[in-house]
Design brief:
alpha/beta, Rossmann fold, 7-stranded mixed sheet, 7 helices
Length: 205
């Protein structure tokens, strides 16, 4: 089986995993998702990357491992306690900027600044289950929007499955993205923006 070929992790992952276990953080991305993110990052030389939900920095490490020297990554989370682990292990890399802020406010700021990104990995509520439209505005044509944890997880509350179903429907019904749903790892959606959709007033949405 292909899944028996466990991906080789970036050097920083072992230390981050130890610290993640020590603080009892259970929402980190797994190695399979990380390997996909690394491969996708490598497909965007000189790319601009946005991670919504730093956590302890495991996915961050995989993204950085795929990025070239001209690429940059903005990683956002509202929990300083977990971001401090990411900073301790990854902040020496000048390509990454860690921002501790409310995700919704940060997305709104990026939209107001007319920013755009080659890849967005949305691993927290803002930009995924809330403020989805605003986050998708930040994906440039040819850019990627990636989410994980689409398959049932042990830590899901009872009211979470309908939210996942709504997200899947919202993404797969869009005319401006080509979407692949992957029943692999924790369940992923990979969406590529193929065009801008014109609003009734003529502005690109």
């Amino acid at each position: 089986m292909l899944d028996a070929c466990k991906p080789t992790p970036p050097m920083a992952v072992a230390a981050i995993e130890r610290e993640t276990r020590a603080v009892g953080f259970t929402m980190a991305s797994d190695a399979w998702t990380g390997s996909l993110l690394r491969s996708l990052a490598a497909s965007k030389p000189g790319g601009l990357f946005l991670e919504l939900g730093t956590g302890t920095g495991l996915a961050t490490a995989w993204l950085l491992d795929g990025m070239d020297e001209r690429s940059t990554l903005l990683s956002v989370d509202d929990d300083e306690a977990v971001v401090s682990i990411a900073r301790r292990n990854l902040a020496h890399d000048a390509r990454v900027t860690f921002t501790v802020a409310d995700g919704a406010s940060q997305i709104a700021l990026l939209v107001a600044e007319h920013r755009s990104f080659d890849l967005i990995f949305a691993d927290t509520w803002p930009g995924k289950y809330t403020h989805l439209e605003e986050a998708l505005q930040l994906v440039r044509v040819g850019g990627l929007y990636v989410v994980d944890d689409m398959l049932p997880q042990a830590n899901w509350p009872d009211d979470h499955p309908p939210k996942v179903e709504s997200l899947v429907e919202a993404l797969t019904s869009r005319p401006d993205f080509h979407v692949a749903t992957l029943s692999w790892s924790t369940g992923l959606i990979l969406a590529t923006r193929v065009r801008r959709v014109e609003s009734p007033c003529g502005a690109a949405a």
